[in-house]
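Model it.
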Amino acid sequence: MLVPRVLPGERAEVEEVRTQKGVVHARPLRIIEPSRERAEPLCPYFGRCGGCQYQHLTLASQLTTKPEILRETLRRLGKVNWEAPIPVHASPAWNYRNQAQLKAGKSEDGSPALGFFAAESNRLIPIDSCPILSPGLNVLLAELRSQPWAEALGNCREVELQADDRDEKVMLTLRGGWKAQEAAALAQRCLAELAGVVTVAIGPGASLHVFGEPYLNYRVGDWTYQVSPTAFFQSQRFLLPEFVAGVVGEETGAVAIELFAGVGLFTLPLARRFEQVIAVESHPQAAVDLAANARAATGRNIRAIAETADDFLRRCAQAEPDLVVMDPPRVGAGVATLKMLLALKPKRLHYVSCSPPTLARDLGFLLQQGYRLDAVEMFDFFPQTYHIESLARLSRSR
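Modeled.
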């Protein structure tokens, strides 16, 4: 039986929801005998909003449970038996997110509402604030929920907020149905009246018009990154310097290749340690940001290539690069891509993953092809949730 928000060893009264493939899914009604590891959820929306899953578990228990989930997933799905410790890089438990994607719709009484979807549903849960968002974003969320702005955003389907590293400047993305003049007027109003908003991207979907500053500047350690609307950037406020240092490592050499490079989070620090860095990114706007960030940082030993990892690897003639760093999306790199990569015979691989199942699949393949797993680390980017960000370091054993 699968029951969310019930911990191992607890006795609970539950109600069956459905049976699927012989497994009973149920919802908890009340906890009869709680575990010592149970915590009182801080958020009043926990259990209804689909954003967090682990607020009922103490942070200390989360930090011991997640690496074991990662270890078990590697073993079960990838036949990767990693028995060594998995160091955990911990984040503060609250106010850690610098980005939020809010849904806009109607509340039960028909009034405009902003919030998140319920778990496994498109039912909107209106929220006043979110304890895992940065303080600045919560202030802006409260303003957007006020009556004048709720009415102004009546045609909106989705509101995305992204703050800079100081939690001072915000890039606001609005998706919905407006005519061009209406969209321009709303964007200018946001820039004029919403404190901290410096960029507004607005439009019906992928086609967005940008008003104000064309991008957000985000500083991580010694590097400043240009991040434009629609370009992916990590949403964890506290761990990024530690994360970058862990992924880049202490390696030096002639050539490093970075696949799925995004705006260049690892590219710029890699350029300090390698004679040449080749960074590959296919998302159009992220590729533009990557090239701009490379020019601003050094520009001389970074080649920013705007194409898919597969297209790059099909024509790449670089033999035996010293290091390959890859941070693929949730679907992972995949065996077909890894086969092309291994034809280059990279000496070392650093694989960043936000999905233990696809990491397990890909590591299982790499170990079969003559690579040795040297280290596995976990970065707790998302406390209170089941999401796991990890780093695997490999080297060629033959």
